[in-house]
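>> received
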Amino acid sequence: ASAPAASAPAASAPAASAPASAADSAPASIASPIGTPFSVGPPGPTWSGPTGTSFLPEETVVRAEDGNPIEKAKLTKDATAAFNDVYTFAAAVRAGEMDWEDVEKMDMNTRLKWVGLVHRDKRTPGRFMMRLRLPNGVTNADSFRFYADSVEPHGPDLGVIDITTRQNIQLRGVQLEQADEIIDGLHARGQTSFHSALDNVRNMVGSPLAGIDCLEMVDTRPFCEALNDLITLNQETGERGNPVWSNMPRKFNVAVSGSRDDFAHTHINDIGLEPCAHSETGEMGFNVVLGGYMSIKRVAHSVEGDMWVPAQVQPVVDVSEAILRIFRDEGARGDRQKARLMWLIEEKGVEAFRDQVAAEAEAYGRGTVVQRAQPKPTGDFTRRELLGVHAQPQPGLSRVGVHVPAGRLSVAECRAIADLADAYSAGEIRATVEQNIILPNVADAEVPKLLAEPALNGGRLSVDPGNIVGHTVSCTGSQFCGLAMVETKANAEAVAKLLDERLVTPRPLRIHWTGCPNSCGQVQAADIGIMGGPAKKFDPESGKNKAVPGCNIFLGGTIGENAHLSLEPAVKGVPLEHDILVPKLEELIIEHFGGTPRPAPSAGAGGLLAKVKGLFRRD
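>> returned
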């Protein structure tokens, strides 16, 4: 996508230098996991193009010069340099010519985030979390094995794979000397890690049931793919790494919903596309909601953008591009806590922002017309379940949702899922924002065999984990994240099991964990949200209250239609020790969510036949 005339390059902005081989390197087009063409440059440091700063108006550059340290770092050395630097650094480390500690700090901790490398310097110095981009959460068995191979050398404690709350994958324990090989391996598989961290537009979230949903209003896959290309594809060279969007004020999230379930959680995204038929023509399209986000200083539910566009790729790209261009050029460059889209919308006013977006999208001259928002669907609707076995509209096929506790996978579990996908779902694997996976297009006749697989019985992975264990979500936690006040993933998994042993709930109970107020675990959207925080506990030896790891507990967040965020904790300062926290949660579940004590198991209950009958639901 080209920048509009209003975004003329700053005259003084330098261009990134291109390697000598770049002119002779032709882009390749391979297939993405979804099966669509994925354009990518050849392996190695061949990226060329103008700088990200060159797309900023002079006024924006001036504000950035007076801005926060990240803004100044992006001006000192453009972030697009990382597209080649990562290869140079990796080769030099392998050759023994340098160590990771020799890399300039702003490169190591800031600019390398443009290729998905997030240095975990506080917890695991010299190690990275490597974040990918999986549009619509779609990947495959070959990729899962590649993820496992990439982290296996780092051992079971560091070398793990995480499924995220944006239908994405994060590789843990990655070292700089292997980063270029992982990037080239991803590109060979129709994926990228470029533009996945810090001031970038993050992974495009869509419906995990796209194309296999009997109640689908829009297949979200083409939109997520097109928007991913808008952000990551250099249209001039066909390579991944797009300078047009390489100098944003802050992170930016986009979600495309495909049904009334809103499995994409549009209400907590900067751009949310909600399917809605036109009231007069009946044409399917999207209402646009704007500005939802979570951060340490503020949590904001999206606002109605009063825009509707038809469910066609070009209008969706045009409106998204217009919003992004306005945010890129006009968003705050000073206080990073105010450098999110909602602040700019509030500064301008919703109506004025809407009119500016509509005028710009239409001015691109690609045929897009932005209409006023259409009336939302009415009538009763209950958000559906993603775990378990459910019939698809395709005769004889079912989708099978598999629970991944806290979204954390070991190397062996990652390979086991790959084997299941090859055996039952033609290799396809889909991630959900609940940090679980779906195996689509499983033949009905094969479902009993799948459910009997050892990988889904007796270990951590399961198809029928129950209402409590199966709906627990967790951020990274203090094991790897320097911002987290508490460990979350291990606690989330253990506490869920303890609660499940004690209680039965009448419906799925969504318990989310986050280690700090940044709320990567989205606790405000949960039935029960557990946020790491200070607590005190009486110490009998000293006779005083002493500080201990603790949490604040949020209640009553909702998702789907009429979603609601719980903005203030209901209970504060609860020690994280299980003998204190679990009884408190048990009390809250009984009082607020209809929980009842779990009865003792009856003799002879269960068995594979009962499990299959119970799971094989038709909806």
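>> The radius of gyration is 24 Å.
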